[in-house]
């Protein structure tokens, strides 16, 4: 290609919006992440949303300023910074009130959004199924409704003249409703419609859950902080093709796959949406039915990136979210992922790291889902945990009830099997929901 042709070519791709990140370091807030770590994560979120981060600003605060979150001096500093480091949007690491966002935009003269708005935008980009799209749209409207601005003053009701009073005169009552009220009414109707559509989707999901329960297949839910490697692990175990990418919230919609364990037993494994610190309340509410999939699980696999610098904080975030969903008492197997990034990933080294972190973990397995390290140990650990939730039996099943032998083969675990003159003697364990069917044939 000649130089003259190159000179005539123009880049047609839309340039990325440039973002300035702002955080408040609140004194005595022991629950919060370190401000630098939290802003680093906010930068990853911004990158996932397709923004270019051009700088960060933080301020130590006794408490957030009720008008602008940060102090007025810091607001002026952020506004002045735009001449040195041009930016198109300011993103705050905390959720802003409607008045704070409005005051900040008026002072800085640029678009201002908060962490919640950013996460909602990412979810909107990544939702693929109808249910996911409905959930995200509902969350966005729930968040938007109280933040509508009274920008349509030219359509506000007018005080009438005539008669000298301050009341509204006949024929001078304005156009009927303001643009703000019209927007609120339209959004309110849309929210009601979305809730109806989600209720219909959830009814179908409930039928699906009932069918799964009747199948007797154990259910394993994979939970964890976003980008810990949950989808990669499901792909490895189920030989599936769930989207797995090195980015936050690569997958949102729950995915269920049938997985065969080494002992021959089949389980259903569900990958759920990744958790994150300060997951927006609107999203938790909209995704509650999806997250309740976790409540149906027999065992939870908590996938944790042991190499992440904030692994302790991520662990606590996941446990707190499980507590909010009231499933923290379910059997949990902690899966330390990405150990291929550790110099000496021996059990002794893993134990040392866990001890130093002080994580309250009962059972764990160290793996690399990407490099297929430790997967056999993980499968064995899953089988052991499922075995503990089964009922042990020795039964003699008459040949006339051979359908129960088939059921045991399909859903139970067999230690021994003997064929006698009158029937089949089985030793092993079956899921609790089937125990009553074998009780009449128990060997005394």
From TrEMBL:
Keyword entries, A-Z: Cytoplasm, GTP-binding, Magnesium, Metal-binding, Nucleotide-binding
Subcellular location: Cytoplasm
Keyword NADP among UniProt keywords: no
InterPro entries: G_HFLX_dom (IPR030394), GTP-bd (IPR006073), GTP-bd_M (IPR032305), GTPase_HflX (IPR016496), GTPase_HflX_N (IPR025121), GTPase_HflX_N_sf (IPR042108), P-loop_NTPase (IPR027417), Small_GTP-bd (IPR005225)
Transmembrane segments: none
Domain Hflx-type G, chain residue ranges per copy: 218-390
Pfam families: GTP-bdg_M, GTP-bdg_N, MMR_HSR1
Domain of life: Bacteria
Chief subcellular location: cytoplasm
Family of this protein: Belongs to the TRAFAC class OBG-HflX-like GTPase superfamily. HflX GTPase family.
Subunit text: Monomer. Associates with the 50S ribosomal subunit.
PANTHER family: GTP-BINDING PROTEIN 6-RELATED (PTHR10229:SF0), GTP-BINDING PROTEIN HFLX (PTHR10229)
Role played: GTPase that associates with the 50S ribosomal subunit and may have a role during protein synthesis or ribosome biogenesis.
Name of the protein in its database record: GTPase HflX
């Amino acid at each position: 290609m000649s130089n003259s042709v190159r000179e005539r070519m123009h880049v047609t791709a839309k340039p990325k919006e440039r973002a300035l990140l702002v955080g408040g370091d609140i004194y005595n807030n022991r629950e919060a992440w370190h401000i630098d770590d939290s802003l680093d994560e906010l930068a990853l979120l911004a990158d996932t949303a397709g923004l270019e981060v051009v700088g960060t600003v933080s301020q130590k605060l006794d408490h957030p300023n009720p008008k602008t979150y940060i102090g007025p001096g810091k607001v002026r500093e952020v506004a002045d910074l735009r001449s040195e480091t041009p930016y198109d949007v300011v993103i705050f690491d905390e959720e802003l009130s409607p008045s704070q966002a409005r005051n900040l935009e008026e002072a800085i003269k640029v678009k201002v959004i908060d962490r919640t708005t950013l996460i909602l935008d990412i979810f909107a980009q990544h939702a693929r199924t109808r249910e996911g799209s409905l959930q995200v749209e509902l969350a966005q409207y729930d968040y938007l409704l109280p933040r509508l601005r009274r920008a349509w003053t030219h359509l506000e009701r007018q005080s009438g003249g005539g008669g000298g009073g301050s009341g509204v005169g006949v024929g001078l009552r304005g156009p009927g409703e303001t643009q703000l009220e019209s927007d609120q009414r339209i959004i309110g109707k849309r929210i009601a419609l979305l809730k109806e559509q989600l209720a219909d989707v959830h009814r179908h999901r409930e039928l699906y859950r009932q069918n799964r329960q009747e199948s007797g297949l154990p259910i394993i839910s994979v939970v964890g902080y976003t980008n810990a490697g949950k989808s990669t692990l499901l792909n490895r175990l189920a030989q599936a093709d769930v989207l797995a990418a090195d980015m936050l919230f690569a997958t949102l919609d729950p995915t269920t796959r049938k997985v065969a364990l080494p002992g021959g037993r089949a389980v259903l494994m569900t990958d759920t949406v990744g958790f994150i610190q300060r997951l927006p309340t609107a999203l938790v509410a909209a995704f509650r039915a999806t997250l309740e999939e976790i409540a149906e699980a027999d065992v939870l696999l908590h996938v944790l990136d042991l190499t992440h610098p904030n692994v302790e904080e991520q662990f606590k975030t996941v446990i707190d979210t499980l507590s909010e969903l009231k499933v923290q008492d379910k059997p949990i197997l902690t899966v330390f992922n990405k150990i291929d990034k550790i110099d000496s990933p021996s059990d002794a080294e893993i134990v040392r790291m866990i001890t130093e972190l002080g994580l309250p973990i009962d059972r764990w397995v160290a793996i690399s889902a990407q490099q297929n390290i430790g997967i056999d140990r993980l499968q064995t650990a899953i089988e052991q945990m499922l075995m503990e939730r089964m009922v042990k039996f020795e039964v003699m099943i008459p040949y006339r009830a051979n359908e129960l032998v088939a059921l045991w083969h399909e859903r139970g675990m067999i230690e021994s099997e003997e064929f006698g003159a009158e029937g089949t003697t089985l030793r092993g364990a079956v899921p609790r929901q089937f125990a009553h069917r074998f009780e009449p044939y128990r060997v005394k």
